[in-house]
Design a protein that fits this description.
Length: 457
């Protein structure tokens, strides 16, 4: 089958806008580059995980360029930026999306999902994977701003149509996920890797090529109404999950600790390919789990139906193999240790995960996942999936800090995990994350298939 030619680009220019330089530096740190180098093969990996390593999302940046609001589309694979609109059109789109024009030196970083990249590989569940992956990326970008001493605010409750029209997202099978408001801060030299091109001249622009399969996939998605809620940005940060004390010194209340240490964690994050069947100190597991209580700035309500449960399978502490509800009252949770064979079965026969020392389940009531539109103040599927993805990223960073391995699993036997963790049948498990002693000689089977080829992406 034919592939499209790469679109022609205008001559490269240097990025001059301070806000664009900052946004590109944050994208490199928070989403695109990881300096984890446990093996030569992992060097240069992205800063966030993705199911099948397909990364089904893209970015755009809106900032002031020579005093004019300007929108840029980001091509992360080629490290290229294209100027697509400037002036009053950009200002109107921001206003209609309930977003202010960023101050000089600041930026709005827009995350756009492209469900086709996941759905062509994983079918219908690829849409959920898309939302989880975007949650990892957007949450990590938010942490990157805080680590630079300029905490940003993530907006998920915004009218998406104006930004979608500005960026021509829907016609190219993209969906606006969120907007990160970044205050002015210093940029490192990561932006110097990028080239800037002018694509604002519509007569010269070439429409984004898409296959009929992607269009069919896009049309197959249930059309969801835009449900903007007028929710003011919070005055203070709040955790994405309210953890119980559990009666432990490291019961989950210290978060990731000093934000000045976060850049190091973000740079060295890595996913475990397999786990060694070995005990892991319970204190290390609890230190990793405590990261879930890290406060971040979003426009989501402080309370959420999202639940979290820890299955502590193996620990160097007698009598501590148990099921621990991390949120809620935990009534009726069994004190039962799953076997290695049960973990393998619950993770769809991924035998490399048999040695996991602990499992974190993120779940929500099925009534909260209704596609009929959220009630006033309630969370919709996109918001709950963001919480799952961002909490998963926090657990990755917490495990890194605790020097233990971690990996996320999207394909699992939900009924078996319900039994093993004693979850109510009314809850839907959205994400499973496993902790343990890493074994880097393992292979992640979902990465064997080619994620994308040449200009197909």
């Amino acid at each position: 089958m034919a592939l499209p030619a790469a679109p022609s680009e205008s001559p490269a220019e240097p990025a001059a806008a301070a806000g664009l330089k900052l946004a590109l530096s944050l994208l490199e740190e928070g989403a695109l580059t990881s300096r984890a180098d446990r093996s030569r093969r992992s060097h240069g990996a992205r800063a966030v995980p993705s199911a099948g390593a397909v990364y089904p999302y893209e970015f755009a940046v809106i900032t002031l360029e020579n005093g004019t609001p300007t929108a840029f589309r980001i091509n992360a694979d080629r490290r290229a930026v294209t100027r697509v609109a400037a002036g009053e059109r950009v200002a109107r789109a921001l206003h209609a999306s309930a977003l202010a024009i960023p101050a000089d030196g600041g930026a709005v970083v827009v995350t756009l999902t492209r469900p086709w990249l996941s759905m062509r590989k994983y079918g219908d569940r690829g849409y959920l994977y898309t939302q989880l992956d975007a949650g990892h990326a957007a949450g990590n970008l938010l942490l990157a701003t805080t680590g630079r001493g300029a905490p940003g605010t993530l907006r998920l409750r915004l009218p998406r149509v104006p930004l979608s029209d500005l960026l021509e997202a829907a016609e190219n099978c993209r969906e606006v996920h969120s907007a990160l408001l970044v205050p002015a801060a210093a940029a490192d030299d990561a932006w110097t890797r990028w080239t800037l091109h002018d694509g604002a001249d519509r007569e010269r622009r070439v429409p984004t090529w898409r296959s009929w399969l992607e269009k069919t996939c896009w049309d197959s998605l249930t059309a969801r109404a835009d449900h903007p809620r007028s929710t003011p940005a919070p005055d203070a940060s709040a955790p994405l999950a309210q953890l119980r004390d559990n009666g432990r010194p490291a019961g989950g209340q210290d978060g990731l600790g000093d934000p000045s240490e976060w850049p190091k964690l973000l740079a060295s994050r890595a996913s475990s390919k397999a786990f060694v069947p070995a005990n892991v100190p319970a204190a290390d597991v609890w230190q990793a789990v405590s990261a879930l209580s890290t406060p971040v700035r979003t426009d989501l309500p402080a309370g959420s139906p999202m639940g979290a449960t820890l299955v502590l399978r193996s620990a160097e502490e007698p009598g501590q193999n148990a099921v621990h509800p991390l949120t809620g009252d935990g009534a009726g949770r069994p004190d039962r240790l799953p076997s290695a064979d049960e973990v393998v079965r619950a993770c769809m026969q991924q035998r490399t995960l048999a040695g996991a020392a602990a499992v974190v389940l993120l779940h929500a009531p099925r009534t909260a996942l209704s596609d009929t539109g959220p009630a006033d103040g309630a969370e919709d599927l996109r918001e709950l999936a963001f919480r799952c993805g961002a909490l998963g990223q926090l657990l990755y960073l917490g495990a890194n800090r605790a020097r233990i391995g971690v990996t996320g699993v999207g394909g699992f036997d939900a009924a078996l995990w319900h039994t093993l963790a004693g979850l109510p049948e009314s809850d839907e498990i959205l994400y499973v994350l496993l902790l343990g002693q890493p074994d880097d000689s393992g292979v992640k089977l979902d990465r064997l298939a080619t994620a994308h080829a040449q200009n197909e992406r």
